[in-house]
Design brief:
The radius of gyration is 23 Å and the shape is globular. The protein is an alpha/beta fold and about 475 residues long. Strands 4-12-11-10-7-5-6 form a 7-stranded mixed β-sheet. A 4-stranded mixed β-sheet has the order 1-2-3-15. Strand 13 and strand 14 form a beta hairpin.
Length: about 475
């Protein structure tokens, strides 16, 4: 690691400028141009974040042009310990130095055995006691597919209960239970078996009331629909839910509402699937997001951070659901030994250093600072989240609030905030219904000075973005 990059971790607000005095954009631009020419139109992050990372340590990323950035994307939540954490690198090197097999399908290995032990030690004891684990393909969406197949096999039913605003992955089954109709249109059979229920969203409450009353109405709606013989609900094999919707706009489920979903599913014999792909391993201030409510699910989908930055996905589920036959669900890359070793090291480091507690403390500090900023910035409609999973909803500062008190979402302004933040050395991404929620997913190892720098850079970026959007709007008006 270069000395310049190491220093960047300790500086509260380093400029996003070339550090070596050279002409910075030549190499970067060439790589980006070749990517645009050769890669598919489906690429996303490369369009909104035109950087070419070449080195990274902790929360700091250095681009090919010499600029340095604080990374609040963390591989969409994959990098719980940040980039190139020493315990992860050591675990990977140990497997390589031992000349252990790297690819073993579903064969038993010491590396896998240690990983399963470490993972099960983190689960609620009553869940872990009789749990089974299935190693899936390497992505969270593969885990969702496995979970859906599991419950349909176990129950003999086809229907699934899912929620508005949900995101569970990009394969056909996972998309069927996600909430974005634009990307669901081409998935083929299966979507008609999904019943979509309202997810409590206090800022833009589907019932127009928000708060505990809105959550209570969502519970009543779900229960009434399920008990209506003419409700049109396919017999549910499961309910799948995120304790905090990530891509949906960083919307935490109220604990009381999640407990009610557990009651509703229990009373009707419906397995409850918790999608912990983005929320797991301390991200929300508890090791698992479901711990905040005390709910014990029937199935957990786990990926992203569990591989210690490498591809790995599993489902853990109640033993009585284990009615698969050999080969009923498989995947060539489900035996990734390096990911299991890295995951074991990550789990151990988070637990030993209580990084879940640290995430809760830093998350409170960041949300408090962002809410203080909101008081003077009408572009910020809402600040919400749990632990180090934070959303800042960007709204039209010049529009009147609606009947629910919320201003209209401002996706163009949110995109401008993202760009202005990048100019200031801060990597953030967008999510939410209209792509208007700035999402913060920093590593759990973020320092106090880095947290302060994130607040400073967002505080600079938001008014700069507003001025740029207004200037562009004025220019368009003159040329119309």
């Amino acid at each position: 690691m270069t000395a310049a990059l190491t220093r960047a971790d300790s500086r509260p607000h380093p400029p996003a400028e070339p550090q070596d005095g050279t002409c910075p954009d030549t190499a970067r631009d060439g790589i980006l141009q070749r990517q645009a020419r050769r890669e598919s139109s489906a690429r996303t992050y490369a369009r909104s974040l035109p950087i070419v990372p070449v080195r990274a340590k902790g929360m700091t990323v250095e681009g090919a042009d010499g600029r340095r950035y604080l990374d609040c994307l963390s591989g969409a939540g994959t990098l719980a310990l940040g980039h190139n954490h020493p315990v992860v690198l050591e675990a990977i090197r140990a497997v390589l130095d031992a000349e252990a097999p790297l690819h073993v399908l579903d064969l038993a290995t010491p590396v896998k055995d240690r990983f399963v032990d470490a993972l099960f030690e983190t689960l609620p004891p009553e869940f872990a006691r009789d749990a089974r684990i299935q190693f899936c393909g390497p992505a969270g969406t593969d885990g969702v597919e496995a979970a859906l197949k599991l419950v349909r096999t176990a129950t003999g039913r086809r229907g699934v209960l899912a929620f508005t605003g949900a995101y569970h992955g990009m394969t056909a089954g996972a998309l069927a239970v996600s909430g974005d109709t634009a990307i669901r249109e081409a998935i083929g059979p299966g979507a008609d078996e999904v019943t979509r229920l309202p997810y409590p969203y206090a800022y833009r409450c589907p019932f127009g009331v928000g708060g505990p009353e809105g959550a209570a109405l969502a519970v009543r709606y779900a229960e009434t629909l399920l008990d209506d013989p003419a409700g049109g609900v396919a017999a549910p094999a499961a309910m799948i839910v995120e304790a905090v919707q990530g891509e949906g706009g960083v919307i935490p489920a109220p604990d009381t509402w999640l407990r009610e979903m557990r009651r509703i599913t229990d009373e009707r014999g419906i397995p409850l699937i918790l999608d912990e792909v983005q929320t797991g391993l301390g991200r929300t201030g508890a090791f698992w997001a479901v711990e905040h409510s005390g709910v014990v699910p029937d199935v957990m989908v786990i990926s992203k951070a569990v591989g210690g930055s490498l591809p790995l996905a599993v489902i853990v589920y109640r033993g009585d659901l284990d009615r698969w036959w050999p080969g009923a669900h498989a995947g060539t890359f489900r035996g990734n030994q390096l990911a299991m070793a890295a995951g074991t090291a990550t789990i151990a480091h988070i637990r030993a250093n209580r990084l879940d507690t640290r995430a809760a403390e830093l998350g409170d500090r960041l949300t408090t600072g962002l809410r203080a900023l909101m008081a003077g910035r009408p572009e910020i409609g809402d600040v919400r989240g749990r632990g180090l999973m934070i959303g800042v909803e960007i709204v039209d500062p010049d529009a009147a609030p609606g009947v629910d008190g919320a201003r209209p979402a401002a996706p163009e302004l949110a995109a401008a905030v993202r760009a202005a933040a990048l100019d200031r050395g801060l990597i953030v991404e967008l999510g939410g219904r209209h792509g208007a929620v700035v999402r913060l997913l920093p590593p759990l190892t973020m320092t106090d000075s880095q947290a302060a720098a994130v607040l400073d850079r967002l505080a600079d970026a938001i008014p700069a973005a507003t001025a740029a959007v207004r200037k562009a709007s004025t220019r368009r008006g003159r040329t119309a």
